[in-house]
Amino acid sequence: ILAGTLARLDREAPHYKKDGYNDFNTFYMQAASGTKGGSSGSPVVDCQGRAVALNAGSKSSSASAFFLPLERVVRALNLIRDCWDAFGIKSESVYIPRGTLQMTFQHKGFEETRRLGLRNETEQMVRLVSPAGETGMLVVDSVVPEGPAHKHLEPGDVLVHINGEVVTQFLAMETLLDDSVGKEVNLQIERGGVPLTVKLEVEDLHSITPNHFLEVSGAVIHPLSYQQARNFRFKCGLVYVAEAGYMLSRASVPRHSIIKKFAGEDIENLDDLIAVISKLSRGARVPLEYVKYTDRYRNKSVLVTIDQHGWYAPPQLYTRNDATGLWNAKLAIPLESPFVVSHRAGHMDANLNSVSPLTESSPMDLKCQHESENTADGCVKMQTDEEIAVDGSHSGEDSIIEKKRRRVDEEIAAEGTISSFGDLDDIKDGALRHPSSVEGSDLARTISSNASLAEQVIEPALVMFEVHVPPICMLDGVHSQHFFGTGVIIYHSDCLGLVAVDRNTVAVSISDIMLSFAAYPIEIPAEVVFLHPVHNFALVAYDPSALGAGASVIRAAKLLPEPALRRGDSVYLVGLSRSLQATSRKSTITNPCTAVNIGSADCPRYRAINMEVIELDTDFGSSFSGILTDEQGRVQALWASFSTQLKYGCSSSEDHQFVRGIPIYAISQVLEKIISGTPGPFRLINGIRRPMPLVRLLEVELYPTLLSKARSYGLSDNWVQ
After folding, report:
1. Cross-strand pairs, 613
2. Do 676 and 554 belong to one domain?
3. Are 543 and 681 within one domain?
4. By the 8 A CB rule, do 473 and 311 touch?
5. How deeply is 346 buried, as exposed, middle or buried, from its count of CB atoms within 10 A (0-12, 13-18, 19+)?
6. SS3 helix, strand, coil % of the chain, rounded to 5?
7. Would you state the pLDDT for residue 649?
């Protein structure tokens, strides 16, 4: 029990936060009682034990505490009692009338109202009829846009009468408004010394307090409440993002945003948003336009990807049931809508993955491209110049491409440089197999004399990853929800594309992956098909048919698993910048077989073990990943990012990453098993059931040690020798 003396009975309501709940249009009491957090809601009693206020807040920098008066609490209590007495039983819900004009008043002293233009005769009249000790009047502080008082009242207006009654206190004003819900009231004000009378309709406060919300992909969206409309200076009822969830946060839509447009359609209310969502299929990518209250005059546009893998249930609409106190949920969109239909189809595909007798792919269908000298074997058939000249069905865009190709040929002949499309055999032969390969490429970069031969050869096989992990799928100790990284295409045919990437970019299989290609301006989804349990690489599949014309430009890299890299060998480290520009750096192998030693993290999660990696003589930074190639652009290793956790002292630790090379033979062995159809568990990839290789493990963790220490473990002399 804390003692205190009431210092003020007319303190303004405390301001808690700019984007959350705040009380207003009421006086608070203040006392130096020294209450702390957690005591909110406790009673404030007088010396006779009677509750006179509710402990509501405090100031951490002082001993001040703020108490809410109980007059309106008593009114609500009496209304509930009267309802119970009238029905003879405790009814499930009681309506408490509450009126509002959607504006905020402040109590200002007479010296301030005089500066606002209050006339002397008005002040004298107010002092005469008001209770003794009255020190000021109510002044308009803010008006919610498009509310009842919008365009009628302005900040600085001094309130004099409501329905002919002088009102200088919040309690009297609130009583009049609560008793006039749905009716009109006459307000007499003074604006700069000019008397004005306005007639306003009192709105039901319950009507602008949301009683329903939409939940879609983890996001919570509802009509903008009066509280937030007052904070943000927006009108009530706009479509407000209370929680961004997965779908919106993936597109960088923050909390407290107001959705203005979605999929090209204006969004005025929640029903508009639901109608647009019901027309969209899972996996669709549509623009969304939103505005933030902190930057209210600038609309921002982002691309939103509709949850394509069914991580979340179809959109649910929750409505508050005042009779039961519960929120009733129902499907927000029709069962026949594309969103729900595509959701069902996705689950059917998942079931077919394990039980459906679909046509299985034969090893011949998946002939390994990287072992073939003819690069067209695993790719879409490429047209020659003669075929293009004969076929008259090409569009004007193709003719532009043809002109670009000729210009590139001329510049290559003049400067002696190599184009980035086509493998080394094409380059040596001086032939460009497909003129449309120039499409979507930056010509200046393509023919730049600064680019190394390895960079230009390997560029059509480079891919930029953007990986998002849904919050509900943060399994196996995944340390982040968003990853970037560079991968390399190791297989590309008409029906299947495979990309190798490190497991610090693709950490878990349940994630949304988008691929951007260096050789062609397109972004397509992909899925994880293989995660090595102990070695730091993953294989990701994409659908080549989604590339359109880019399918013939993009090609798989040539892998060079043998001979193994040795100390002193020269290699080219090739990677991608965020702008999808290939960058190469020449380096030398310093250690081709360094053992990885990554300690356990605080939370159990994946870490690379039992593998030997490659070190270079130059440190290119911990964030630059890519591949290691020879001078001819053949891939010898994946320059991969490794995740670890550094511990500081006994309690603190932080995530850390470093990069090392993974010899390509480890990846090519898995690729060969996939291509040859080695027996294993089947997985549905691009509509075809394909076997995935089994990986045998010893279930032990090995680490290197010196022979001298191994002898102490009991290693015999013969083994030491």
Report:
1. 594
2. yes
3. yes
4. yes
5. middle
6. 25, 30, 45
7. 65
**In degrees, to the nearest 5, what angle opens at C-alpha 343 toward C-alphas 340 and 345?**
115
- Taking the C-alpha atoms of residue 388 and residue 399, their distance in angstroms, rounded to an integer, is 10
pLDDT, residue 638, reads: 96
β-pair partners for 642: 658
Q: What is the pTM of this model?
A: 0.78
- Encoding tokens for residue 268? 């005025």
Residue that is written with structure tokens 């969103």 in the block: 339
The 10 Å Cβ neighbour count of residue 285 is 15
Which residue reads 């000019």 in tokens? 194
Residue span of the structural domain in which 268 resides: 209-343
**DSSP string for residues in 317-340:** EEEEETTTTEEEEEESS-TTSHHH
In this structure, what token pair is assigned to residue 39? 């005591």
Residue 431: inside a domain, yes or no?
no
Is residue 311 a contact partner of residue 470, using CB atoms and an 8 Å limit?
A: yes
Mean pLDDT by 10 residues, the chain (721 residues): 86 87 92 82 91 87 86 93 78 86 95 94 94 91 95 96 95 95 95 95 94 95 95 95 94 95 95 94 92 93 88 92 90 87 57 38 38 35 32 38 39 33 43 35 45 88 94 84 94 94 93 93 93 94 93 93 93 90 91 90 86 90 90 95 82 84 94 88 86 89 90 93 92
Q: Is residue 45 part of a domain?
A: yes
Q: Give how many domains the chain has, as a whole number.
A: 5
Look-up: residue for tokens 């008005």? 122
* End-to-end Cα separation, the chain, in angstroms: 81
Hey, which residues are catalytic here?
Answer: 370, 625
| Spatial separation of the C-alpha atoms in residues 289 and 243, rounded to whole Å | 17
Q: In whole angstroms, give the CA distance from residue 199 to residue 187.
A: 6
Nearest residue to 480 (alpha-carbon basis) of 470, 465, 495, 491 = 470
Token pair, residue 416, equals 């002696």
